[in-house]
TrEMBL record:
InterPro entries: TAT_signal. Keywords: Signal. This is Twin-arginine translocation pathway signal protein. It comes from the Bacteria. It comes from Janthinobacterium svalbardensis. Residues 1-20 form the signal peptide.
Length: 174
């Protein structure tokens, strides 16, 4: 027995209402978004701590303390890069991290069932690949934003230039 048109429409309206209620509950719990500058809160930091290793892969050190320091440095670099964006772009990035922090949205859009600290690296890599090749341009743009922010922040640090064979800027331009 197939899904009839009327049932499909009812299901769509019910789903839209559920998303609206979830968004309203999120805003009620978290308060309205500040119109000012980007703030890297705990939820955004947790998402980045799961996403950065998936993006950087082998570029991150494998050792425990060195890896932890490199991850903290990468997250700080992303925060600095975001703060350098225009306010409108900062707000869009804030909205992206808000979406990734909201449990129903994280499950539906990113496919990450548990919180970011418990996310399996393979699961995070799969969600990033899905966003990279998604048919919706919005998710592709979100992937590209994360990609450019993370890799840009990583390779903005002169300590990582040797890994890609970049000798640094020409002395004449320094």
């Amino acid at each position: 027995m197939g899904l009839q048109r009327r049932s499909f429409l009812k299901l769509g309206v019910l789903g839209a209402c559920a998303l609206a209620a979830g968004g309203a509950a999120y805003r009620a719990l978290r308060g309205p978004a500040a119109p000012g500058r980007f703030v890297l809160d705990g939820a955004a930091r947790a998402a980045l701590a799961a996403i950065v290793p998936a993006m950087l892969g082998e570029a991150l050190p494998h050792g425990g303390d060195a890896r932890s320091k490199a991850l903290d440095g990468a997250i700080a670099g992303v925060d600095t890069a975001i703060r350098g964006l225009p306010l409108a772009a900062q707000q869009e990035v804030q909205d992206l991290f808000g979406l990734l922090a909201l449990a129903p949205a994280r499950r539906f859009v990113a496919g990450v069932k548990d919180g970011w600290p418990e996310a399996d690296p393979a699961q995070v890599a799969a969600f990033l690949q899905a966003w990279r090749t998604h048919r919706l341009a919005t998710l592709q743009t979100a992937y590209l934003a994360l990609h450019d922010l993370i890799l840009g922040a990583w390779y903005a640090d002169a300590a990582h230039w040797a890994a890609i064979g970049y000798p640094g800027p020409l002395p004449e331009l320094s």
